[in-house]
Write a structure and sequence with these properties.
By secondary structure, the chain is an alpha/beta fold. The chain has eleven helices and eight strands. An eight-stranded parallel beta sheet has the order 1-2-3-4-5-6-7-8. Helix 5 links the parallel strand 5 and strand 6. The protein starts with a strand and ends with a helix.
Length: 263
Amino acid sequence: MYGTAWKEGDTRRLVGLALAAGFRAVDTANQRKHYDERAVGDALADAYAAGVVRRDELFLQTKFTHLAGQDHRLPYDPGAPVATQVKQSFASSLEHLRTGTIDAYLLHGPSVRRGLAPEDLEAWSAMEDLHAQGAVSALGVSNVTREQLELLLERATVPPSFVQNRCYASTGWDREIRAVCRQHGIVYQAFSLLTANRRELESPAQCAIAKRLGMTPAQLVFCFALDVGMLPLTGTTSPVHMKEDLGVVARSLCAEDVRALAM
């Protein structure tokens, strides 16, 4: 999946390059602080017009972000109830992305560090309404702890289909969350696989495996992620790396190498 965070004025160009390279899943958020969702939509329109891709060939994912995660460029009325904010943000996302439906709509992290606040459950309920209306195919949550995910699974009428977390090798690649995901049939989306694990990428052991397999260290991590059931995100700005990252889809590691990388 191609991640569009932190690209600012280069968002339209880079998303266009990613689509041309072959990416068919795009992640964004209606959070102008870190994303330019409208520019993602511009890139999609460019690609449609050029015949690069059709909407029905794409998986589009965006997010609702609570007020504390936003800056002054809000996609909703800050004084409105959270359920209304979700509906306003979603309508804005449809406009930005020039689509009538969203494939996956994520809660962009709970509003509290521990547990779930009433605002989180209100947001999820509003997201469930969008799902019931057919405007969203699947729901998800990002930046979540195991405790929070288990609480959401207890309270939700429509359970999350996706969890998106920053994935650290030092925690066994988010081992505890991934275990809950496996138990409940949730797809784990991993972001910052490279930037959060620079030390591990440079370790002699990983470099030796990558060299033996004729992979770059980045390719090795993405291949490992796929082999253990993750859906990796990459936000690379390099057309060469885009092609390299997609190239691992057809490859897999032996069980011994998976164990060596699993920490």
